[in-house]
Amino acid sequence: MPLPDEAGKVRYFGAIERDITVQRKQTERLLRLAHRDVLTGLPNRAALEEKFRSLSIRPSARGHSLVLLDLDEFKQVNDTYGHLAGDELLRMFATLLLSNLRRDDFVARLGGDEFVILLPDTLLEDAHQVAQKIVAGSFELEIKKNNPIQFGSSAGVTALLFGEGLNSAMARADKALYSAKSGGKGTVKIKLKSATHE
Q1: Catalytic residue among 72, 113, 126, 174
Q2: pLDDT at residue 11 is higher than 60
Q3: What values do phi and psi take at 68, rounded to 5?
Q4: How far is Cα 79 from Cα 56, in angstroms, rounded to an integer?
Q5: Is 37 a catalytic residue?
Q6: Is the dihedral angle over the CA atoms 71, 75, 80, 85 positive or is it negative?
């Protein structure tokens, strides 16, 4: 605000300063929590939906692909060894997924043991290879000392159709994942519009 002298001429300006650093950090923290899975640190479904919208309206000669994965026998881990063991398994799987992705790929945890990968500008065949690599990368969790237990995953793969919604793409991938589970687990299936393929 201007501060005039006795003659009415403005010689100084005054200001009130307020430090909003703490408020801004709190706001940023809340935004992160709204878009992050607390257990694994991966983006959550809200973040996935935002990313999906941006991809579904972006044309690509190669197309975009989606991979839906879940852990084999995850419920048995929770039931037999407890939720702490299950939580550790989810964190290990999240790390495995991140180690197999490119910089522009996007992975999110939907909840439970279900994870989604969006692969921009990726042919369906290439997405299938990515999923196979992940599924082949089984890993061990040492629940009891010197007694590691091996775990694996299954996957369903589909291509994104231009302009479609997330639920539509997820439904196809889910059918492929169900087919993979029914076929003995530890496998990958592709779901096109009307057919399922190895």
Answers
A1: 113
A2: yes
A3: -110, 125
A4: 39
A5: no
A6: positive
